[in-house]
Amino acid sequence: MPPYLPTTEELDAMNNEWVEPNTTAYEGMTYALYDQPVRGEDKQGSYWYSLPEGYETDTAKRYPVLVWLHGGMSRGSQAATAVKMYREAMAKGTMPPTILVAPQGLPVGWYINSIDHKFPVEDVLIKDLLPHLDATFRTNGKRGIEGFSMGGYGAAHLGIRYNSLFRGVSSIAPAVLPSLANEPKERVWDTFRGDQSYYDKEHPLFLLREKSEELRTATIRVRLLSGGDDTRLTEAIAKMSAVMNELGVVHYRKDIAGAGHEYDQILEGLADDAFTFWNDAFAN
């Protein structure tokens, strides 16, 4: 039986879900809206944020920001697991106090501008969200970006292309398959329109080669993580790491034994190293 393909109406709904309809509160997370002038007048998007302990009382202190990108067919609220883990790490002192932000990036948007520019997710995040965060919160100019699955692709894509904007890039189980045909059509059609050449041009592997000289000298820490049992992606992720080694791009790479395509399993497999990564990234 062929895989389920959403109807045109369902795809249209997903591809226009700039504002997450679910506003139910999650522990430690607050729902907010921001303007998206890239998309036009009166356009808005949503995000969740979590402030570190002491933010409200020590009003002179400024903090780094970690932007967390959700996976495909999901929403910003998928970050609830990550926020819980990171807040616990901050309480233990294994991670620096950090503002956590989880934007709604379209369930099938891939964190890039679609080939027809109808869905400018990349421009919205870089040109609208990041300035909004700096204007809204007491940030200190140090940013990290992390994502899972499609979000892992997005973190790699944005972190590599805009490496001067980030101190840390954490790509968790990134969906970096080399062939567009290997992704379900419903997840890629409205972004790439079946165009392998556009897929290649936006792929992190292409950007690595394009930005390799910048990355070799950039003040940025990069990690590439996957689950050892995630057989669909492990080969593609290993290739990405091999290309980084070939280009002399320093990074941390680990395959977590016994972990599948599950964010929490992968981070738990690193123990405290999952969080001290950000100590190093934000120390620069």
TrEMBL record:
A Pfam family annotated for this UniProt entry: Esterase
Protein name: Esterase
Taxonomic placement: Eukaryota, Fungi, Dikarya, Ascomycota, Pezizomycotina
GO molecular function terms attached to this record: acyltransferase activity, transferring groups other than amino-acyl groups
